[in-house]
Predict the 3D structure of the following.
Amino acid sequence: MFDQIRLDAWSTGLRSKLTLPLRVELWNGQQLDFSAEPPRVTLRIPHARALRYLRSPSLYNLGRAYVEGAIDVRGRARDMLEVVGALAAHSVPRNGLLRAWRRATHTRAIDAAAVRYHYDVSNAFYQAWLDPAMVYSCAYFEHGNETLAEAQCKKIDHILCKIGLRPGHTLLDIGCGWGALAIRAAQRHGARCVGITLSDNQARLAREHVARAGMQHLVEIRLEDYRDVGGTYDRITSVGMFEHVGLRHLPAYFRRMAGLLRDDGVALNHGITTTDTASKAAPYGGGEFISRYVFPHGELGHLGTVLRAMQEGGLEARDVENLRRHYARTCAIWTDNFESNAARIQTLADARTFRIWHVYLAGCAYAFMHDWISVYQVVCSKAGKGPGEIPWSRRYMYQ
């Protein structure tokens, strides 16, 4: 009886302030609708104990309940996130769950384990929803109507133009994924490339991609930590990797990048940032969900934090480009691909992993859309040099 009274009060209060395409189905057969339109999201509460998730509907609480099977949620992921986001905004103080990232120790062993957790689900799992080249980072939609495959190829070309890659240059790709950037750099520019990753699965398949492209003479894929790389390179790229480094370690990360770069070299760092100036996690518990279920030990810095760390590491920022709109679209396409191939994906991962990624991909699109997180490409070179190597304009990037 007490649970029913509290539920009635909750639903009455919610209806007075929000109209949501949501249906809540209770264990006793009762249904609660929060809009006159047909529900696009159905949230099933299997027993009275699960009502607590409704009474404190943060993104973390509801996401955890869904992932762990404590509640069932039906509907398209983007609709789920819109509904859950509205519930959280109505019920949870934005800053109440805006917590600082947990400062984890980033040893080689810890970082390798975190990367394997995220990337070694299986190569077939990622193939089911990425583009054919398996580029797992923000695409670049030059006109907005490109396919995902076209936009990912344009992203790689955009990066290679930004760093002024030339035939005979040596290129280090830190966090090379499945090798698409290194292969493109070798094919189109004749560069000699080294790609490094901490994922066994990525390294094996990347080497297969290199061999299939006939680029073994120009591309080497290594299973190696960036802290252990030797030599010097004309160009360095790092795409979607520095989120794993840790905020305290960013100056050392950029210092290592500077140490690997030739005096006249150019580097580019492409990575996700938080829009919170204090470098705190996403609001309403979204950051806590990511940290627990998706990116253990991952931390996002504000752009200002990143640029300061870059300068402290001996690098001068030459150019900064915001690609938030591009990543919102990329994640939306990934979400659609994931749902279109749900039957296959459910044969490649257990139910819990499927639910984590189902909500994670849509949650990223939601976060980029609502300016909780962003993504920047920063072109840089060694600090303290004369300005003669800096181009007069940005025209060269669009040739």
